[in-house]
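Researcher: Next sequence.
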Amino acid sequence: MNTYLLDELSNAKMPDYDYTFKIMMLGDNSVDKTSLTIRYISGFFLEDLKLTIGVDFYSKTTNFRGKKIKLQIWDFGGEERYRFLLSQYCKGANAAFFLYDITNPLTLDHLPDWVQIIREHAGDVPIILVGTNLHLEEFRAVTMDEGISKAKKYNLSLFIEVSPKTGQNVERLFETMTELLFERHSENLKVDYVSKPLKIIESKINNYLTLKLEKERTIIYVGGKHFHQCKYLLLDIPINKMREYEELNSIDEAAEKLDSSMEMQKLPKSYLSPETEFWGHCSNIQAWSENNYDTNLLHRNLAFPLLKALVNAGDPRAKKVFKEEIAIRFESGYPSVVLYLIKQGYLDYLNDEELNILFESSKFLENLPKWFFKKDIPKNLVKKIEVKLDDFNASFLDNDVFFPLLEAFAKAGYARAKKAFNEKIIRKFESGYPPMVLSIINHDYLEYLNSKEWDAVLGSTKFLTNFPKWFFRINIPKWLFQKLREMINELGCPYCGTKLIESLGQRIVKEGPIKCEFCYTSLTRII
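Model: Next structure:
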């Protein structure tokens, strides 16, 4: 997960604050740090949240005793491998929460280490010990008395138990922390992040990648050389839109949903301190590196140039994944990313064999209609893809991919695609295979057939032989049922040859029971 900033206000102009407090959210994995933060900010509970990598930022504005207070919440990843970053992130912190799971005593084991780091790098700030999963009382493994005892042992400010899932005590927790912080600072204090020049700070991500804070600007160095590229940091997500962003697959998708509001240069200078911004960038780049240079975690304008620079600097890991990342993101079909890769020449790094494999991928062809019909696609690329589709008879595709692909090209005016699409519909419909027929009906593909094609289908021996396989087994739309009924009445039963099924009712009287099962079922359904 990347760095997020959430705020109740989504206006372009940020308001002034009487106080801004930086609060660290600490604890092991799976103690609901992110869930607790989101519950407080938004009022709802999100399940199945992704693991926090490095640190995430959240923010909420609240009013307290007539003052406007902004809480900056730093949700720090609980994995051991990120612990070395904590001392840097703690600098300037005004307070901290330490979370543990009341159903898991082991989540208290690292409390002494976390407290020591906070005290060394943030000073004597308020720390509240928070037991989570209060709604799982029946599975409790840490008593309330044990929690209180731990808080006293390490001289913490307060102890409380909460449930991010139900919301129990969540508001109370943050209100209490706000009160503690308010009382520690004078009425005249207003956080001014730009009043002091910052010293040079350095964060080494790996042997090839380093970030430095120089003259209040974050600079990226690749192989010891200054890397010139714009950097995206924040997502300013309105609370009422949070659920929408849980389903996004990349920062590029989030950035477009936010209409580029994440660009730091568009925010007021006092919005974040240069040092806070620097550590935000460090968190993003660290997460990117830890996840094998996954380009979904950074904006495309930074991810691909940075990855290419690492390749040129001799990073073996970057060399290994560079082509893979190009292929994966191109295959994903997200229009802005695909167009970026095309226009910036990244497809040129793939040879003909690699492109052919990519063009045959089901995922690539499934996503192809998302971008293929845009005006600015190079003609040579269009031609390569059209040739690969082989007049839209790509036998290597399954029906779940092929039908939507043909439909998209047919709608775009490709005559060959329309012809192949209709032929494919007729062939599969005539086969009588119930799941396939049902899929064709449910996707409304039959509506693409003209009257001449319908007459040919209804008169074909193959259709007449096979349609009893599904006629009584699936739900048929009224218009299709009427069409088939007229056909049966005219052509007769495909089994016994009886004409005019409606007249079969008279046969019951004159000739006794109907022996043909198809006629009997037809009569039961039609009359």
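Model: The two ends are 61 Å apart (CA to CA). The longest strand covers residues 55-64.
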